[in-house]
Amino acid sequence: MDVNELLQRYAVGKRDFAWADLQGADLAGSNLAQSNFNRANFTGANLKQANLSQANLTKANFSNVDLTGANLTGATCRKANFTGAILAGAILEAVDWTGATLPDGTMFEAIAAAEPETDTPLEDAAVISSEAARKETPELVETLALSTSARPRRTTVKEFQADLPWPSLLLLGVGYCCFGFLIGMHPGAGLAWVIAWLGSIAWLFEESLTWFAPLVGAIAVMAAAGVSVVLLAVCGVVTFTLLVMLKFLGWSWRAAVKDSLWVGAIGAVAITTASWLFADNEGTGAILVSGKFPFAILLLLGVSGAGLGAVAWGQMLGTGYSRKQTAWTFGGTTALGLLGGCLLALPLRG
């Protein structure tokens, strides 16, 4: 979605812009009050003097966004990412910062009720008046985060394990174990290991890339097994055709490329799975289960497990784990899964 499309929709009364991709957009001075920007991506955007009062900014990405003088009165910023954002002069009255990552990288945790003996009441810590906001610098927000001890404190193994999303992590590990087994059955596939693991942590760069993780793992398996020219040609044509169509419909280049690659990758995985699952029985025309039947099942299990388990990082951040803790846990789980699959494949490959 580009800036013109966004402002045109807002002008005719539209307010739902969930998941909008507005990376680098120039929205300085724009009136976007009471809009729904749930999970929207504003990375690097210019929002100087913008009006975002009463807006739903839940889980939105404001990394490195210039919000100088912006009006966020009454905005809901739950679990939003403001890392590196500029909030000088911003109006931050009655903002809901629950679970939000503040400019210095610390996480704000709302206090349910002020303790009777606390010198500074909740209102002083969580609500910043418009007059004070205009006078203070971004350091005010950093002080706010530090004063509430927002960074998770998990100093023991027991504390660290207490809130881990074990079901999601288990699914993630099983999915990548399947990928590791399939890659391990094909010697000399060093690059495939790197592709599979890097794809699993792509969410560190952009949240929406989470859903590419299972597809990248499957593509790594296909690269290790050898990709046919016909498959590349078919998927390339599908991807290019969809890209042209989306651009014709007015999509941004970033969104069009991302969604086109997503569809193309799904097509590649589906075709590969079908080719492994069924085969022509020596030219007789009978479609039977092929010799690669177990490979097809493992590929489907890998995609399913990795896809269902990919939400683990969001669950960890949502329960108070730091981004660093989440990255190590998530990346370690996928790495162990790949290693386990490789070890299982060693005695079996020829």
**Spatial order of strands in the largest sheet:** 1-2
Query: First CA to last CA: what distance?
Result: 51 Å
SSE succession: HHHHHHHHHHEEHHH
Poorly predicted ranges: 110-152, 281-289
Keywords: Membrane, Transmembrane, Transmembrane helix
Pfam family, one: Pentapeptide
Protein name: Pentapeptide repeat-containing protein
Question: What would you note in describing this structure?
Answer:
The protein is mostly helical. It folds into two domains: 1-151, Pectate Lyase C-like (3 Solenoid); 158-345, no CATH class. 49% of the residues lie in helices and 2% in strands. It is built from 13 helices and two strands, in the order H-H-H-H-H-H-H-H-H-H-E-E-H-H-H. It has helices spanning 3-11, 122-126, 130-135, 139-147, 157-162, 166-184, 190-200, 213-225, 229-248, 253-277, 293-309, 312-318, 323-345; strands at 278-280, 287-289. A two-stranded antiparallel sheet has the order 1-2. Strand 1 and strand 2 form a beta hairpin. Helix 6 (166-184) packs parallel to helix 8 and helix 10 packs antiparallel against helix 11 (293-309). The protein is flat. The chain starts with a helix and ends in a 5-residue tail after the last helix. The relative contact order is 0.11. Residues 110-152 and 281-289 have low confidence and may be disordered.
